[in-house]
Amino acid sequence: MADTPFVTDSPLLARPGAVPAPAGTPDTGLPWHYGDPFGEQRAALTGVAVVDRSTRFVVAISGEERLSWLHTISSQHVAQLPDGASAENLSLDAQGRVEHHFVQTDLNGVTWIDTEPQRGPDLLTFLTRMVFWSKAEPRDGNEMAVLSLLGPHAGDAPVLAALGIDALPADGYAAVALPGGGLVRRMPWPTDDAWDLLVPREQLTDVFTALVDAGARPAGTWAFEALRVVALRPRIGLDTDERTIPHEARWIGGPAEHGAVHLDKGCYRGQETVARVHNLGKPPRHLVLLHLDGSAEGRPEPGDPVTADGRAVGRLGTVVDHFELGPVALALIKRNVPVGTALVAGPCAAAIDPDSVPDDATVQAGRLAVERLRGR
């Protein structure tokens, strides 16, 4: 896997008050906050905020068979993805473990994919190698940069005027073209009012400035990450490890379920594991929200073990301070760990948020069929 993002520093770091994200983190090169990270989180929930995510790696795929080809090598049902529609998608290995997570939008004859900066070059290499004789042409699409627009007032007239459109797309994952190039698409996370912008990279500073002048508050990646964590949306490589399967990370479901793995599509690499877990088994771990003891000296790091009575029961992911909940984290925890178990993550006591535990008590259809065959 490539270790270096394709972009080292966003030009928006030059904005007054911009504090860069800590070195060595996935968001290195982006503004972490602008002096008031909690106020920025609040603005994203109650007003309107704009977040620079321009280090995300972008791939462009053209060619008349781009969707049918991508359908065969990924986990989402995208063969008939309509023009102006989007979806989340995964690339799995032969054992069903997650290798790549990406968001794709098909618009005006091109599929745009954006993914983590550290994983983008490998994803592009994989896609290029898998073309064979298909009429699909993946290429580096990093002439586009990603911004996120958050908040219930994102559709106010001044913001729309800054974008040059009459209305933001309202339906899940819907996208429309921007008059200056690029697109805006509806997203179901990290808040109930969220849109991603793909804008020409040379226009990044101008678009950001126009949105701020129209009333959007500049918000850093700290705000975006805090809201993402509370929304229980994992980030590959941070909240997942090399063993993670889609069921563990809540990626099951088609676009209507805001998932990245469609359970009713043709064969693809890793499908056997997905089908087996869905029909017969349970995932060994599940993604939960942890509340951390804010009085502890120091904070745990992503990748640290989560322990119970000195025994490792999970893996820590994103750690962040939320403006209302305090220090929180995502973690992959063994499914058989009871909600009330006293946990430790690094120097902090930790507790599972009971509302974050998925309900997996239902017996799968495949398991019921097996029991019937056994006469039970």
TrEMBL record:
Q: Does the keyword Transit peptide apply?
A: yes
The residue ranges of the GCVT N-terminal domain are: 40-249
UniProt KW keywords = Transit peptide
**Disordered, as annotated region:** 1-25
InterPro entries, alphabetized:
GCVT_N, TrmE/GcvT-like, YgfZ/GCV_T_CS, YgfZ/GcvT
The answer to whether the entry has keyword Protein biosynthesis is no
Example of a GO biological process term: iron-sulfur cluster assembly
Spell out the PANTHER family in the cross-references.
TRANSFERASE CAF17, MITOCHONDRIAL-RELATED (PTHR22602:SF0)
What name does this protein carry? Answer: GCVT N-terminal domain-containing protein
